[in-house]
Amino acid sequence: MANPDKFLSITKPITHVIFDMDGLLLDTEKFCNEVQEIILGRYNKSFDWNVKVKMLGKKALEAARIFVGETGISEFLSAEQFLIDREDMLQALFPKSELMPGAGRLMRHLHAKGIPICLATSSHKRHFEVKTQRHRELFSLLHHVVLGDDFEVKHGKPSPDIFLEAAKRFEDGQIDPCNILVFEDSPSGVLAAKRAGMSVVMVPDPRLDKGFQKLPDKVLNSLLDFDPVEWGLPPF
Question: Nearest CA to 110 among 215, 9, 201?
Fold first, then answer.
């Protein structure tokens, strides 16, 4: 039997683009790490990068369950209480979110050239609003946004739900997944996009094990390294 997670590269022309947000467009992961370190410090624990990798791209509650379970604090703190405990700290930090290198240039370029772009992020609405508040003009270029707490997104990444839902909402109607290029930074996000039948460019954290970088169609160090021409898109 074929491995369901083994996918072939997709070569049909790209007509639409879907972006992840955290760690890809916005440098928000450092704030999450900071808050998690503070909470773990209360229990004399430290945050391990391997736990972070398992959390990347997941819906909030699922990521919280991984966090309390993998760090050994579940007997002291439930996943639900962890989300409550971190909220005030995140609300103070997220408004400081900066764009990742190349994010603004790429989004503005695609929009100017008439390539429909949208966002598919595991972030909930309340976090999305504070993370993007300094970048309203840029995020207004998106055709639409699909969030992690969207009613139509039943399962988080690595399920393909969020990307399939994002594809449905382009004004052209249902777009052939083969014509969609996804930008992601997390292994679960890459797998979700491939399961949706889409091509994927991965811009991983440099600490991510190279073993996670085999599935995407392209791996870049930065969005600054992206060449639209390679995908049949208008050149910069």
Answer: 201
pLDDT tens sequence across 151-210: 999 999 999 999 999 999 998 777 899 999 999 999 999 999 999 999 999 999 999 999
How is residue 221 written in tokens?
């160090």
Q: Which one of the listed residues 5, 20, 150, 217 is annotated catalytic?
A: 20
Give the distance from CA 142 to its chain's centroid: 15
20 included as an active-site residue = yes
Q: How far apart are CA 49 and CA 63, in angstroms?
A: 14
* Positions of the chain with pLDDT lower than 50, given as ranges: 1-10
Answer for the pair 199, 7: CB distance below 8 angstroms, yes or no: no
161 a catalytic residue = no
Q: Of residues 5, 22, 88, 149, which has the active-site annotation?
A: 22
Coarse DSSP helix, strand, coil percentages of the chain, rounded to the nearest 5 percent: 45, 10, 45
Range list of β-strands (E), the chain:
16-19, 117-120, 145-146, 180-184, 199-202, 218-219
> In whole angstroms, what is the distance from residue 88 CA to residue 127 CA?
11
Count of C-beta atoms within a 10 Å radius of residue 192: 28
Residues 31, 37, 41: CA angle, nearest 5 degrees:
150
CA dist list (Å): 143 to 49, 119, 139, 168, 211: 34, 8, 9, 12, 34
